[in-house]
Amino acid sequence: MGRQCGAGTPPAATLVCAWPSGAAPVKSSAVSNRLKDKWALVTGASSGFGAETARQLADLGANLLLGARREDRLAQVAADCQARGAASAHVHKLDVADTASVNAFADWAKATAGRVDLLINNAGGAHGVERVEDGRDADWEAMFQSNALGILRVSRAVLPLMKPHPGGIILNIGSIAGRVAYEGGSAYCASKAAERSITKALRLELNGTGLRVGTIDPGMAETEFSMVRLKGDKEKADAVYAGVEPLTAGDVAEAIVWAANRPPHVCIDEILMMCTAQAAPHKVHRGEG
């Protein structure tokens, strides 16, 4: 038997549905806050998706464990989060490409919080747009160290803080590039495809533990991404977004937080999101209309 829901908007944006059977009304879970006072660990939290995710988690009253290499910017993000209502915000330097740094960060998280309920594996990036024949070992290695091995290192170090507390979730930040390869992106696409495989394997390995694993895969998004990839060439970086309204860090963070805020019996395995103008990595409409 179907539900009958009123067309009007109830007070406080709470959806109340009347069941013909006479059962008690059911409130929608859309406005539930399941992240208040939870311990959320975010890597790459000094800018972009990581920083904005931290701020939106702060809006929901979460406790934050923030890691990144740029400690000055990390401290500013933590201050923003405290001002926005975080239950607490703690920072520690983290380089996901360095095993010792990751292990030290996990030890600090254990001493600070004793547990982790939400892990956002966000740290990563792209370096260069060269074709394979012109590629540089240093760029290839940097991408695999952060985008793939970094997720493995952090997950390995943090899982002991999560497994005693069923209901937690790991969200890895991937990319459309992990699904569709393109010219000039061979190593980056491969590193993000590796992230996708790691996510799927973790989902299988943790089945039965009460922990959830998913991936958020954005398309074109305007952050520091292109500036880093293009070695600081602002003109080329700006051209990436010319004539397009790309995703913002806030758009992606909203999807991350939404996935994290689902009830414990719900696992968002994957979200693929792009701006309206982008239909594929190689198919972008530029201009008005």
Describe the structure.
This protein is an alpha/beta fold. The protein has two domains: 1-31, no CATH class; 33-284, 3-Layer(aba) Sandwich (Rossmann fold), CATH 3.40.50. 38% of the residues lie in helices and 17% in strands. The strands form three sheets. It has a seven-stranded parallel sheet, with helices on both faces. Helix 4 links the parallel strand 7 and strand 8 (169-173). Helix 1 (48-59) packs parallel to helix 2, helix 3 (99-112) runs parallel beside helix 4 and helix 4 runs parallel beside helix 5. It is globular. Mean pLDDT is 88; it is low at 1-29.
What's a concise summary of this model?
This protein has eight helices and twelve strands.
